[in-house]
């Protein structure tokens, strides 16, 4: 009797599945022309093995637009205008512990990064609003700190908007590069 019940149950399940027809194909979005990336400080933090002392202090999630033969700063990204610091969603920075930027103490947490590029200096902005698309709804009232940093002109252009860190005494420099422009934001811990 048990065997008959199992066979009948299996046939019912098969019958119901057969009536549903073939599953619809899922359409996946095409690859984004400005791929997302992540940079950590220390740079090797995500590769550290369990139990090692290397834990992240900073994590930045950003999208990397390409130069594609265009003039970037002063043309594509206008001087004196708030810029999303990459492409797509606003760039987000997570501090895993308190940091000091431009003399301002910032609590551990997640923030957005914006910039106002100019020919000789940039204003780097740490803002409390996250999960925004671009700088379209940027709210200056939510700024945590603004820091002016000098521009360094590079001999060779960088194709992709790029971020990395270099270690400094008591912290790290966030190094930003794209086209022939490089700026550095000191972050102290």
TrEMBL record:
Entry superkingdom: Bacteria
InterPro entries: DUF2911 (IPR021314)
Signal peptide: 1-18
UniProt keyword terms in alphabetical order: Signal
One Pfam family hit: DUF2911
Entry protein name: DUF2911 domain-containing protein
Source organism of this protein record: Pedobacter psychrodurus
